Each structure stands twice: as structure tokens, then as C-alpha cells.
Amino acid sequence: MEDGASTAGTGARPLSLSVSAQPPGPGLYLVATPIGAARDITLRALDVLNAADILAAEDTRNLRHLLDIHGIPLRGRRLIAYHDHNADRQRPAVMAALEAGKSVAYASDAGTPLVADPGYRLARDAAEAGHAVRALPGPSAALAALSVSGLPSDRFLFVGFPPAAAGARRKWIDGWREVEATVIVFESPRRVKQLLENLCESEANRTTVICRELTKKFEEVMRGTAAELAERIPEEGLRGEIVVLFDRPEPVQADEDSLRAALSVLLGSMPLKAAAAEVAGRFRRPRREVYALAVQMKEERE
Locate the Tetrapyrrole methylase domain: which residues (predicted)? Predict the structure, then answer.
């Protein structure tokens, strides 16, 4: 991790931070860790990492480095690697520690645990077994990207990583393309161009924001339509950690014939009011207008 807040050469006075050694109570502590700048860690996170009985991490090397940066010793404490490839084998050891009344701090590779990482089953099992599960909020690449994107934040949908195969990726895009929300995607820097090209097959003018290397030295935010950004990205892709955000879809212009055709299909399988609501949402038209048309169609049939 990179410490992006060094005071060297700036004339700034170093801060004196107090890290508590008081042990936390028994339970599982989900510790958010920096996505770039090491000083983004919270004081409470440092307290728990300093005093928990057992430490678990998606990548133990990253956690060791973070502890070194902030001067937190292991003091002989157990450090457990817990990731996608060993979660089933390691979960019993963590659960046994919780059963014994220990405090366990789980840290993601970077950012908030359980957001696109393997910790959710551990948290679920711990909660189901009656153990305390505590969140230590902090850095999140998804929320940091949403904050700087300039896109609407009142409603957003995080959809994780796209499938690598092109066909599966197109089907995955169809699953969220019409959702009335800002969509947040984690993507490999090598495949971000292909992701935009796939979206361009149906919606080339979708407002898009690409955030690269957030909180790091070479942080960059790119804005434009999906087509414009796809053109800017080289064939080999980008470098660094990538978050892609898509604005809400543009309103679909539908004439009465299109509305009638959609209603005709649905009225045979669901109540009139539900069919009208479905079509209104699909074509982004006022519900009252579509409902009136559905009533008219029903009367015509009768």
C-alpha cells in the first residue's frame, strides 16, 4: 500500500496518534483498510488491529505491511490467511476462536470487507452462531468512485466484477442495463475497453465515468459517453485499480403502438394494474397514462 500523505519536505508537523491496546470484546470485527493511501485507515481500525486476539486477512502480506506502516506489532498473535481459495478450510478455525470467546479482526485486501471479497460467508456463519459481528467502517472503492463521479447518488447499484467471457458479459449487462440507478462496476484494467464496447452495442451514449487508482499518486477520473471512453482507451487496456460507473439509462421513446403491444402480452398473465406498472417502468412513462391505456384496451376487448 502506498502512503499518499507523507509530511516529508512540506513543513507540516507530524501528528501524534494514540493507538489503544485495550482488547475488544469477543466477536468478529470487519476492518476496512485503505484502497491506496495508508493514512486513510481509521483510528478505531488501528485500535482493533492492535488489540484483537487473532488477525485474519484476505492477503496476510498486505496486512503485515499495513501493520508495519502504523507501528503495530503482532506480539505472537495468530495471523490467518482467509481468501477465496481456502475459505472453506479456514472458516472452522475462525469459528473455533469465536466459540472460545476470542476477538477476531478480519481485514480485506483493500477497502471494506465483504464488498467483492470472500468474507460474507464468515460473517453470516458467525452471526448465525450467535457471535457479535461488528463493522469498522472506512475506505470503499465503490463509494469513493461514486463520490467523485458526479453521477446521481440517491440510488445506486453495485454489480461487482463482470464475467470474463464476452457472451456471459453481454447477458450480465442486460441484467442491469435498464435499472433506474447509477451502476457501479469493478473491472480488470485489461478488460475495461471490452466492457464499454459491449455496452456500446446497445447504448453507446450512456454517460460513463472511469475512476483509476483512487487515492493513489496517479489517480485519474475519465468522463464521457461509453463510446467516447472506449475510443480513448488503448487496445491493451489501462493500468491500476479500476471502478466504472454508468449513469441511469436515457428515457425510451415509445409510441402508443409499442405500449399497446407490451400491454397486450402482459394483460393475459397478470392483473391490469400490475401490467400497467410493469410497462410504465419498462418504457419510463407515467403510470397514470399507461394505466388509462390499459383500461381502454380492456374495454375494447370486452
Answer: 28-230
**Cβ density class 216-243: b for 16+ within 10 Å, e for less:** beebebbebbbbbbbeebeeeebeebbb
Q: Could you tell me which residues come within 8 angstroms of residue 261 by beta carbon, excluding any fewer than 6 positions away?
A: none
Nearest Cα neighbor of 279 from 249, 302, 255 is: 255
> What homologous superfamily does CATH list for 27-139?
Tetrapyrrole methylase, N-terminal domain (3.40.1010.10)
For residues 80-87, average pLDDT: 92
pLDDT mean over 208-233: 97
Amino acid at 170: R
27-139 and 142-246 agree in CATH topology: no
pLDDT band at 5 (very low <50, low <70, confident <90, very high): very low
Helix/strand number for the chain, H first, E second:
11, 10
**C-alpha cell belonging to residue 137:** 467502517
Architecture of the domain spanning 142-246 = 2-Layer Sandwich (3.30)
Domain locations in the chain?
27-139, 142-246, 256-301
Q: Is the pLDDT of residue 10 over 70?
A: no
What integer best gives the mean pLDDT of the chain?
Answer: 90
Question: Which residues face 270 on adjacent strands?
Answer: none
More confident residue, 267 or 65: 65
- With CA atoms as reference, report the closest residue to 36 among 111, 107, 142, 108: 111
CA atoms 40, 42, 43, 46: torsion sign: negative
pLDDT of the residue at 112: 93
Cβ-based neighbours of 226, under 8 Å, separated by 6 or more: 196, 199, 200, 203, 204, 205, 206, 208, 246
What lies within 8 Å, CB to CB, of 85 at 6+ separation is none
DSSP letter at 176 equals H
Reported pTM: 0.78
Residue type, 212: R
- The Cα–Cα gap between 290 and 73 comes to 65
